[in-house]
Amino acid sequence: MFNKIIKRGGRKVPKSDASETTLLSNTYRSAGGPVISASNVTVNHASRSPASSGSQPLAPLGSAGTTAGLTQIENLPLFRDVPVPERQSLFLRKLQICSVVFEFSESLKFAREKETKRQTLAELVDFIQSGSGRLSEVVQEELIRMIGINIFRCLPPASHENTGSENADPEEEDPYLDPTWPHLQIVYELLLRYIVSSDTDTKIAKRYIDHCFVLQVLDLFDSEDPREREYLKTILHRIYGKFMVHRPFIRKAINNIFYRFIFETERHSGIGELLEILGSIINGFALPMKEEHKLFLIRALIPLHKPKAMAAYHQQLSYCITQFVEKDYKLADTVIRGLLKYWPVTNCQKEVLFLGELEEVLEATQPAEFQRCMVPLFRRIGRCLNSYHFQVAERALFLWNNDHIVSLIAQNRVVIFPIIFEALEKNMQGHWNQAVHGLTSNVRKMFLEMDSELFENCQQQFVEKEAEAQAQDEQRQIT
Questions:
Q1: I need a surface site. Which of 83, 253, 314, 352 has the fewest CB within 10 A?
Q2: What is the per-residue pLDDT across 321-338, written as a single tens digit (0 to 9) for each?
């Protein structure tokens, strides 16, 4: 009995269990990605580390100052020059060449090898694009591994980290251009062609384009190179379209990026591109809208109006917000109150953007939702009318050029006109800008034609209020 216990205690752990904790980190460690704890990740046993397929990962060149793997960079025959049965093995050999990563800080170093790799990558793109044949599962695994080695890397420090400047305007600075782009661009093109190819079986591909892969793609959106972000936007959108199983995960991961940006860092290069993807996703939401999507609007999209750098992505954000209101008009009240909550107090340029977005939202707003929020809304618009910044006052007055908004105001003029009348009269009496003065006169005339009796009542109340304020001021002077 004792011997049996000893034997059982010394039994070896199966390889599949013993290596489970290191599978994911082995797969992506060579790509420069973060080491992910296996306790937080469900390991896909079909997606083994590259060692299991019999091919050894190649050491990167230049970055560690080593020439290991240089013998692997050789000129291989073209696909058309070899028989069809041998093309899969040739594809694997070409993938090994492309797995060597070069340092581009010195352009002349390994120049021949770099050009060989670039040409090989271009051949792989042509091979997949031509639909020359369905790739085997082993080849697909090696392909994704090679792509990961090339694109998953530590991004260089952001420009504000190099200069130490906190108030730099990203629109005024020259965009950062990654020196490795000659290779990166073709790798991204290869990944894109693989995803959109009709020969790519989703059931097999999702074993390698998994949650870990998607997370690392999302991390790359913080790249300062606009060319890279444009490719990433297209690739993530295609992944979302093709791999339905990943859709909830992608939305949640983008949510988390937004939360971190809004409440912690207020620095991220790819918010605009992520919002462009979401604009397309929101456009495809089915009705009635899920509660999850409404919470995303309230918790992520509306608070994105808060950061100082909102101007960089406002166009995309405004499109997403308007899509929600057009999909479900009952959300108009929620959106307008959200805009009022984050309305800028001291930033006039942001205020002009808010007024433009407000007009788009009001254009999709129905009378019932408009009545719920019109009182706080027109109190804010009244303050905008009296702004000393002429662009803010002018943009607020332009709201009366929109026929739908004018019809909403006309239906509720008994409530709105008394709120807005004082602001119009003060502009007429003393605003410094002649354009604002002229636009105010037009709006005032519009109100007079709309309801002359209400106009006279508001004017009488305004005169009485002004006289009372003057009497109080005189009494204060006497005291």
A1: 83
A2: 999 999 999 999 999 999
